[in-house]
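Colleagues,

For the teaching module next term, I've prepared a clean inverse folding example: a structure given as tokens, and then the sequence designed for it. I'd like students to try predicting residues themselves before seeing the answer, so please don't circulate the second half yet.
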């Protein structure tokens, strides 16, 4: 390496400071270099203060002078220092060759994961126990894969036979090992609002909400049962099934022990039922006409509002006013209404929304209806009365003819 001689210097007898003019000491002089000064002696460079100031290892012994030539002489000590630094580096690097660079990391902790990120060193992966891998977010464990292959979310407790187990204040999901021979179930809940169960042995499949059983599929037979007897409706005024297919008709229990009997129909009730015969006719559903046009099929029966009005005309129920019915003691006449309904949407299709939106899912409305079995039976009673009247007339005519 060439000696450095650019510029001139000024020295003072008894001072350890060398002042340069037109010099660049920072890039060309280092601690440990030798500087040859005007007195013919070589001095050790103790420190480089700037491009124009060098501090000597001992005071200058020559005469005070300025504008003097000089030379800075590199020495072999730097090669030794570099070699020493390189050896230290190689020692440290060698440990990385057999660990991190070989894909092997320290266990770490939730607060300081063994594998983390430069910008967020409290987030990453760590090894909390033998044969266990865990993920930490902001210094807190969130996910764990245990030695049995169970995936645990928001919990560190391994269940007996679960394969996926989630537990937190907001949701709970467990999937059990189908090969274990034990009952299994899977479900999800938000504030205990939803649960689905599954069993691989002779136990029922249970559906529920609000932490309460609502529906079950019975083991063995596959029969579908409500959780409670005579307590739940199948559909509603605004949530109707379109068609029900069945091999046989429905069975309506009619045990007299469960009834508070009133009486047979009154004459007014039979009069109203008889008038309902005049209301019978064919019709098409509007939505089917809109979809199929003239191909929409005809149905037969009465119109619910007309039946209600007939009963009102006979003083049996309150009339319909502005589309709203009054009170009725008859279960044969039905009216259902519902309010607007809204749902907070967090995703639409496959798109997750950054800001949830509220969408209306049902418009407020109402609907009239009737129970065909009960209305039909009342009309049958009116038909029997008319048949009895006709039979009495015929009997009277026959008696008169025989006199």
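(Answer key — instructors only)
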């Amino acid at each position: 390496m060439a000696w450095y001689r650019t510029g001139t210097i000024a020295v003072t007898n008894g001072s350890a400071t060398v002042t340069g003019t037109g010099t660049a000491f920072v890039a060309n002089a280092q601690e440990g270099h030798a500087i040859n000064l005007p007195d013919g002696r070589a001095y050790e460079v103790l420190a480089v203060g700037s491009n124009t100031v060098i501090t000597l290892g001992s005071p200058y012994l020559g005469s005070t002078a300025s504008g003097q030539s000089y030379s800075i002489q590199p020495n072999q000590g730097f090669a030794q220092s570099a070699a020493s630094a390189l050896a230290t580096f190689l020692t440290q690097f060698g440990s990385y060759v057999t660990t991190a660079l070989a894909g092997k990391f320290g266990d770490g902790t939730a607060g300081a994961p063994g594998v983390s990120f430069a910008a967020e060193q409290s987030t990453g992966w760590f090894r909390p126990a033998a044969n266990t891998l865990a993920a930490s977010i902001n210094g807190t464990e969130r996910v764990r894969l245990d030695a049995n292959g169970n995936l645990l979310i928001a919990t560190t407790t391994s269940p007996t036979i679960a394969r996926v187990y989630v537990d937190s204040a907001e949701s709970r999901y467990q999937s059990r090992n189908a090969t274990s021979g034990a009952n299994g179930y899977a479900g999800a809940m938000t504030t205990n609002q939803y649960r689905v169960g599954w069993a691989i042995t002779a136990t029922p499949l249970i559906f529920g909400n609000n932490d309460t059983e609502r529906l079950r599929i019975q083991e063995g037979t596959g029969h579908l049962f409500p959780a409670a007897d005579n307590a739940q409706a199948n559909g509603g005024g605004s949530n109707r099934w379109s068609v029900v297919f069945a091999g046989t008709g429905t069975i309506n229990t009619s045990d007299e022990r469960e009834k508070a009997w009133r009486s047979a129909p009154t004459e007014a009730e039979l009069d109203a039922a008889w008038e309902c015969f005049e209301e019978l006719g064919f019709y098409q559903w509007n939505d089917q006409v809109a979809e199929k046009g003239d191909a929409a099929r005809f149905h037969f029966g009465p119109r619910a509002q007309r039946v209600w009005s007939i009963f009102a005309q006979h003083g049996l129920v309150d009339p319909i006013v502005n589309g709203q019915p009054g009170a009725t003691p008859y279960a044969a006449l039905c009216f259902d209404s519902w309010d607007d309904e809204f749902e907070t949407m967090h995703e639409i299709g496959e798109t997750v929304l950054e800001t949830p939106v509220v969408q209306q899912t049902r418009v407020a409305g109402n609907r009239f209806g009737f129970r065909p079995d009960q209305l039909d039976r009342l009309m049958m009673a009116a038909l029997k009365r008319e048949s009895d009247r006709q039979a009495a007339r015929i009997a009277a005519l026959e008696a008169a003819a025989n006199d």
